[in-house]
Amino acid sequence: MIDLRSDTVTKPTKAMLEAMMQANVGDDILREDISVQELESLGAKITGKEAGLFTVSGTMSNQIAVMAFTQRGEEVIVGAESHIYNLEVGGLAALSQVQVKAISCPVGKIPLDTLNRSIRSAGVQNPRTGLLCLENTYNLNRGYAIPAEEIQVASDIAHQYEVSVYMDGARIFNAAEKLQTCVPTLCQSVDAVQFCLTKGLAAPFGAVLTGSAAFIEKARWLKQRLGGGFRQAGYMAAAGTIALQTMQKQIAEDNRKADFLAAKLQKIHPDLVVWDGSMTNIISLDLSGFSITDEAFLQGLLQKGIKIKSLDEKKYRIVCHKDTSWDDLNYVETVIKHLLLRVDAAQI
């Protein structure tokens, strides 16, 4: 099966599995797990921050960060297309008890005039803006890479009002590769950032939240409150360390794979809309110009051993990752061409 629904379907490498077997572990709640400490230090170094915290997931990191930066009743500015707003089960309201101000950023760039108008100071009838949440890459169905300059300007505006800035950097390594820059450059103007170990980095578990030492101490306490305290977590952290040490070259290849497949798909038919723009390892397809139904398209792919993600009626997402080969991508293009143009099935 060629699974292109997400880069979360990746399997750990042999080196990761071996590191897990050999990990030096202890009780992490008591701060005695050396392997966890190694991962947290490496995560902080890679993002250019003082300290790091190993968490269960990107979602947990996001929610902990908002809890740490805000007080109940404050307002948090988010992108309308962001993960933290759309896909975290209302966590901002349920856990932090904050009000959300969503700003539409269709191609990932936050409108600065709208941002300026959206930041509110304390007043007798309005909530105070407590936090600005950015995302890079932006929109999990498009994967826009946001340049450091744009992050800097948005952060400067927030900081002028003494509003902290947090960045969901789940796929920050894909953004850095696409923009030909380094991760610390993309993170330098924000107060805290998280990245996922389980996406393009292909580790089997977790995320790392980084920021100032004081922020991480508070975040560690909040993580414990949420039931995220670990015992011998070094077995899982060891795989994350190997992922950070060995998988960044793979991230660049994943981006190239997406460019390659997008270019091939665009040649199938003028009515096939393929979004790749400033995207990274993610391709979005729009089949509105074709008569084929969602069910027929998805079932046709499945019968040929291909899985992709359905987003909406006749809209789909393809994500390239380490467990898809170049031959797989050629095959996927051939199958899609057959389904859309009814070419001879014998070609497949």
Secondary structure elements and their pairing?
Layout: E1 2-3, H1 14-22, H2 34-47, E2 51-55, H3 58-69, E3 75-79, H4 83-86, H5 91-96, E4 99-103, H6 112-118, E5 129-135, H7 148-160, E6 164-168, H8 172-179, H9 183-187, E7 192-196, E8 207-211, H10 213-225, H11 234-246, H12 248-266, E9 273-275, E10 282-286, H13 294-303, E11 306-307, E12 309-312, E13 315-319, H14 326-341
Parallel strand pairs: 1-11, 3-4, 3-5, 5-6, 6-7
Antiparallel strand pairs: 2-8, 7-8, 9-10, 10-13, 12-13
Please explain how this structure is put together.
The protein has 348 residues and is of the alpha/beta class. It has helices at residues 14-22, 34-47, 58-69, 83-86, 91-96, 112-118, 148-160, 172-179, 183-187, 213-225, 234-246, 248-266, 294-303, 326-341, and strands at 2-3, 51-55, 75-79, 99-103, 129-135, 164-168, 192-196, 207-211, 273-275, 282-286, 306-307, 309-312, 315-319. It has a 7-stranded mixed beta sheet with strand order 2-8-7-6-5-3-4, sandwiched between helices. It has a 4-stranded antiparallel beta sheet with strand order 9-10-13-12, covered by helices on one side. Strand 9 (273-275) and strand 10 form a beta hairpin. The longest helix has 19 residues, at 248-266. The radius of gyration is 21 Å and the shape is globular. 47% of the residues are buried.
Question: Which stretches are poorly predicted, pLDDT < 50 over at least 5 residues?
Answer: none
Mean pLDDT: 95
Element-level helix/strand string: EHHEHEHHEHEHEHHEEHHHEEHEEEH
What structural class is derived from the secondary structure elements?
Answer: alpha/beta
In one word, what is the shape?
A: globular
Specify Rg, calculated over alpha carbons: 21 Å
* Percent of sequence in beta strands: 15-25%
